[in-house]
Amino acid sequence: MAPKQHVDFYRKVAIRKALLTKAIVGPAYIPFIGDGDVADALYRDRTIDGADLDPERVATAKGRGFTGEIRQGDCDEYPFADVKEAFAVADFDSYAYPYAAFRTFWAKAEKSDPFVCFFTDGERQAIKRSGAYRHPSGDSTDVSTIVERRKAYNFYWKQIVEPWFQEYVKPWHVLATRFYLRRDMLYWGAVVSREEGAVEVEAEPKREHVKKFNQKRRKVYLQALRDGMRRTAAAQAAGVDFVTVWHAMKDDPEFAEAVDDAEVEACDPIETALYDAAQSGNVPAIQTWLYGRSKGRWKPPNVKTEISGPGGGPIEHNDVGATDEARIDRIMAIVERARARGDRSPTGDDPANI
Ligand SMILES: C[S@@+](CC[C@H](N)C(=O)[O-])C[C@H]1O[C@@H](n2cnc3c(N)ncnc32)[C@H](O)[C@@H]1O
């Protein structure tokens, strides 16, 4: 089965719309054009030179009747080297690694000034899974320790992609960027020019409930976690709801890291109490301590337990995720899908604010 074309279509379009206000009239280069959904939503008013490896998707995109040419080809090799007209926009909506296509494009294509480009990047998944990932430069990178991996994952945009891009496009200057991190995906775009300076790109209005979660409330939330509360209870203590906290963690990796640290800190007094109980001869405490902390020298015996549902039948379950985080991710995925469909609540509210 072919992979899904879009996970966060709404987000892809929102980032693009903001920066496209700075693009001048002119053709768009659309590698990874797929079925042409992004091209259809955003570039209909331009000549579109697009390409994709998949012949069926090329046929679908051609059927959309864009002005321009759709070719079957490997975008990492830039299939439009014969085109001499300058592109005003390029949109690298790949599954995971858009940078090989960008590098060949940048080396071979004519660009308008200013030039606007977009990227869909899934390399954070590789960082999370193994620590081995492809840097935007093309170099293979391996971040082996957990601490390095976490840093590379959390600061992927700020410390890896953005600095690379600033250097790579020189002597062009980066005038504006927009990015959005969701799960392992990074969506971003930039306006670049041969002239120095900055351009104002209208900020997406911050959702009211995110604004409400100010520094003071974040402190209360983190302290509540350190005191051992679960995330939903800590949110209540800080006077916000879990959706607000979820957005804050997605928007701000440093805050997300502080949340993790606070939860680890909450374990400290329990560990001390467990250790004291073990020292005083409490056998379950001794076992728990040794199984957890002896680096494999002590292991729990293999216990096999069979569990069944009513009358020995299968267990009925409705899995909504084991942790608060997993549940919230699933709820937010439903909200994003509703948004992408343009659903409104009966009151006309954005579904994320309900
Ligand atoms: C995320 S989808 C693109 C969705 C598309 N932008 C749209 O709006 O419908 C990624 C596309 O990249 C194509 N692809 C993957 N590697 C490629 C490559 N090296 N050259 C060209 N196309 C490639 C896939 O066939 C797939 O259609």
Describe the protein's architecture and organization:
With 354 residues, the protein is α/β, with parallel strands linked by helices. The chain folds into 2 domains: 9-193, Rossmann fold, CATH 3.40.50.150; 205-303, no CATH class. The chain is 44% helix and 16% strand. The protein contains 14 helices and 9 strands. The strands form 2 sheets. The protein has a 7-stranded mixed β-sheet with strand order 3-2-1-4-5-9-8, with helices on both faces. It is elongated. It starts with 8 loop residues before the first helix and ends in a 14-residue tail after the last helix.
- Give the overall silhouette: elongated
Q: CATH homologous superfamily of the largest domain? A: Vaccinia Virus protein VP39
At the first level of CATH, the class of the largest domain is Alpha Beta
Strand residue percentage: 15-25%
Low-pLDDT windows of residues: 317-322, 343-354
Mean pLDDT score, rounded?
84
Biggest beta sheet attributes: 7 strands, mixed
What's the end-to-end separation, in Å? 35 Å
CATH architecture of the largest domain: 3-Layer(aba) Sandwich
Along the chain, the helix and strand elements come as: HEHEHEEHEHEEHHEEHHHHHHH
Bound molecules: S-adenosylmethionine
Class by alpha and beta content: alpha/beta
Count of distinct structural domains: 2
At the third CATH level, what is the topology name of the largest domain?
Rossmann fold
The strand order across the widest sheet is: 3-2-1-4-5-9-8
Instruction: Figure out the total of helices.
Output: 14
Q: Write down how many β-strands occur, each being a DSSP E stretch of 2 or more residues.
A: 9
Radius of gyration: 25 Å
Q: Provide the helix percentage.
A: 40-55%
